[in-house]
């Protein structure tokens, strides 16, 4: 015990043991080990989303320990991606190209490819208690028609459980796999709610986050969206009013803009070139700016009156107020320059892969 | 006049005139126009350093006006790089690969290639008055031997003028082109002072910035470095004491570190793979992190006790205190882990291209 105290949690190199250290997630080390052996890999690239980056060193330790234990290859160099990562749209292509085995943790595949091992890292949070609580907010199964059910990638492993629990309560549960950008039936992304496009007037969203269900409610204004958050243990009903007001305010501020910066995001799954081109063709005072991370600091250097973001819609809506000038979605741009009425702006969603 | 007031400065599209708007720099539009015509370019990518990014839209306007006026091609799409840019080491390779003509402004070439048009944007500041003032800080030409002369890329166009002024005062002026990373004789970079490696006990540095001359003085501790800043109009003598103390403090803080993050920078001219590998081979508790922008925010996500930066040395030394854990140069790492004495750490410089 006293000897071990100098090692950090999950440090396996000095003991050759404890491979199963405490963790909430299954990093699927066996699958990674198999790929290393099969490809006789010299380099293994690991990419984690922001909230899990600190797990990287331990996973690297585990991989190196496995390589040694099982004598998979002579030696392996593990590279951790230090790039920000907010989704499967956001692969570190530099690292991917330079790694024999490349593992992307925490998101489900946006597009299947042999170059990437996706390890989804499903949450092990029990979803049944919060679904039980959500029943109080849902209208009676006999009164309203069917119920739509959606969730995020991290709770996808419990999707059948959710469905059964609702069916046991008498609901007809409608689900679908929205489009190609999504891996699973019932899955939603911050930029894609096509899985909620089912024949039901109310949708149960099971998952965390403030903005995901807001986007869902914006994208489906005809439906009532009940939010069951199993991590924070809260049930709420989505209310888009404040959000819509904030968006209208941004559009109004941008109406006087002369010079527009049109952002084309260079991240593999966040580029919408046709949207960017359409605006450039529409407006002689629009300038194309290419970048990967879209941040207030980077845009402050450009002398523009307003920006249109054709990249990740969440940056526009969630981070919008942090930018020094109004930041609009492509649809909001059309309202600001008078191409369409303000009442027609909807939520900006993303439907292709790459 | 009243009609024009609605146009921003340099907006040429609505007048077809005013191509020669006020500007401090020569953007070498003719050279760019020739390349557009020669390559029958559809896309032109422009990359500016941070301080000049706001000039981008005007230069884009000028280029489009020229294309139309001279009927160079059917149409051209101008793309502005929104990536941070701090040197010729920092080419936007994404934009470069996707542009028919790619122009990098504000830095001299680190490596000549047909893919890039480098437009150096020389300063038009008069350097003679500050050299005159600097004479008071320089020792008499008859007492000390020769005088070394160096400057930064933006004042390179006045280098012969500087040399003549000093020779007229009786100095024997020694200059050289340091190595392959530098374009010009007498040129220094924030990461390379090889041009000051001349047979002279005192060096006159003509240029701005606080850190460039400090690096110069650190790299050449045996020489007296006089700084003539023609932009801020100040003459000083480089004093490395405070800088050295700060570096020693960082090394001391890192001496207890168990887990080391070793940063490999993925920018085209900032990667030192061999240095990174050497440290990883030296230390089982070192983890390789790959990234382009090395920022405090990005590193905060990693649970490390200290970092070694094999990328841009200026980030380590100039921004070091902004990181949440000690950030060392490769040489300082060796001192922290006991591979060499603390007294032997020098300034971290960069001598290759790519």
From TrEMBL, chains A, B:
Listed Gene3D superfamilies: Diphthamide synthesis DPH1/DPH2 domain 1, Diphthamide synthesis DPH1/DPH2 domain 2, Diphthamide synthesis DPH1/DPH2 domain 3
InterPro entries for the chain: DPH1/DPH2, DPH1/DPH2_1, DPH1/DPH2_2, DPH1/DPH2_3, DPH1/DPH2_euk_archaea, Dph2_arc
UniProt GO molecular function: 2-(3-amino-3-carboxypropyl)histidine synthase activity; 4 iron, 4 sulfur cluster binding; metal ion binding
Pfam families, alphabetized: Diphthamide_syn
Key word Lyase present: no
Cofactor: [4Fe-4S] cluster
Keyword S-adenosyl-L-methionine in record: yes
Reaction(s) catalysed by this chain's protein: L-histidyl-[translation elongation factor 2] + S-adenosyl-L-methionine = 2-[(3S)-amino-3-carboxypropyl]-L-histidyl-[translation elongation factor 2] + S-methyl-5'-thioadenosine + H(+)
Keywords on record: 4Fe-4S, Iron, Iron-sulfur, Metal-binding, S-adenosyl-L-methionine, Transferase
Biological function: Catalyzes the first step of diphthamide biosynthesis, i.e. the transfer of the 3-amino-3-carboxypropyl group from S-adenosyl-L-methionine (SAM) to the C2 position of the imidazole ring of the target histidine residue in translation elongation factor 2 (EF-2).
Protein name: 2-(3-amino-3-carboxypropyl)histidine synthase
């Amino acid at each position: 015990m006293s000897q071990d105290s100098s090692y950090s949690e999950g440090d396996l190199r000095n003991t050759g043991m404890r491979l199963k250290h405490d963790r909430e997630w299954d990093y699927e080390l066996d699958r990674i080990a198999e790929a290393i052996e099969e490809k006789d890999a010299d380099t293994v690239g690991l990419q984690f989303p922001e909230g899990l980056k600190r797990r990287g060193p331990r996973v690297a330790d585990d991989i190196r320990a496995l390589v040694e234990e099982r004598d998979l290859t002579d030696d392996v160099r593990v590279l951790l991606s230090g790039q920000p990562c907010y989704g499967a749209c956001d692969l570190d292509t530099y690292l991917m190209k330079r790694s024999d085995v490349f593992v992307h943790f925490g998101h489900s595949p946006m597009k299947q490819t042999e170059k990437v091992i996706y390890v989804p890292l499903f949450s092990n949070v029990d979803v049944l208690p919060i679904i039980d609580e959500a029943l109080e907010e849902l209208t009676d199964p006999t009164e309203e028609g069917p119920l739509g059910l959606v969730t995020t990638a991290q709770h996808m492993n419990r999707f059948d459980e959710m469905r059964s629990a609702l069916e046991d309560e008498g609901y007809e549960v409608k689900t679908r796999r929205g489009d190609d950008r999504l891996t699973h039936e019932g899955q939603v992304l911050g930029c894609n709610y096509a899985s909620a496009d089912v024949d039901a007037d109310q949708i149960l969203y099971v998952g965390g986050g403030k903005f995901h269900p807001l986007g869902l409610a914006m994208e489906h204004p005809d439906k009532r969206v009940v939010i069951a958050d199993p991590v924070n243990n809260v049930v709420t009903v989505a209310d888009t009013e404040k959000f819509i007001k904030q968006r209208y305010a941004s559009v109004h501020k941008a109406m006087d803009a002369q010079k527009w910066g049109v952002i084309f995001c260079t991240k593999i799954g966040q580029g919408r070139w046709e949207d960017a081109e359409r605006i450039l063709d529409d407006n002689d005072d629009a300038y194309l700016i290419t970048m990967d991370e879209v941040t207030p600091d980077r845009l402050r250097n450009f002398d523009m009156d307003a920006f249109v973001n054709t990249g990740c819609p969440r940056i526009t809506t969630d981070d919008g107020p942090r930018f020094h000038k109004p930041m609009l979605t492509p649809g909001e741009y059309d309202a600001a320059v008078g191409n369409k009425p303000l009442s027609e702006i909807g939520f900006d969603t993303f439907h292709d892969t790459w």
